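cache lookup: miss for this entity combination. No prior model stored, computing from scratch. Input as submitted by user K.M.:
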Amino acid sequence: MTTEELVAPGKKIVAFALPGAFTPTSSVRHVPGFLANIETIKGKGVDTVACISVNDAFVVDAWGKDQTGVADLAGISKPRETRGAETWSRSATRCPTPHFA
Amino acid sequence: MVKVGDKVPNATLRMMGPEGPKAVTTEELFAPGKKVVAFALPGAFTPTCSAKHVPGFVSEFDKIKAKGVDTIACISVNDAFVMGAWGKEQKSGDKVMMLGDGGAEFTNAMGLSMDLTKNGMGVRSQRYAMIVQDGVIKDLFVEKPGAFEVSAAENVLKHL
């Protein structure tokens, strides 16, 4: 995913960045905070909430799955698939063809 | 690139412990008197690694240990948090040490890095396995790009 797509004209984005997937503060507070408030944020006209970290797409995707589990505990009622699409960038364009991996 | 007969280069790796990441030096890992099987791969949570490489060593653990191997270690250019999470998913438990080489210090010293910056992955490790006795490389199995054959647990086992 290019930043041109992510922050395209006409879109309002909230992006947050952190030092690493699966790190304690990020996992326990940063991402869950955005997940727990996703409805409120969307209610302000935000199109996309994006989490950015210097990890590869495989790791961030695995972490995203892990984190939506945390959100279940927080009592968010939206279906897991919907939340994932809103919150995580795991598009095929970003994820390299893993022939080397 | 290192070759058979070389001493394993010195570097500090990191693994997840109960209190958080802890340093593991190659001097400790490949200490005199120890026989170690180490394998390296391009990244945690990547498809081939997850589907085949790590599970192979987990499932062949007993046979490998029976050959007098003290430690089995998995090394990847990821941090300890990611390696710890991946280890849980892979159920590597006490069988395979999941070691992060976050800054690629060890991988570069081995001469076995590759640049996957264009794939959004930065500098990573080639896929390989090695048998190390007393800190010296006894066997080295480096995969051709994209291959997964010689570094598999089944092949390493044949050489122990």
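stored under new cache key. Chain B has one domain: 12-158.
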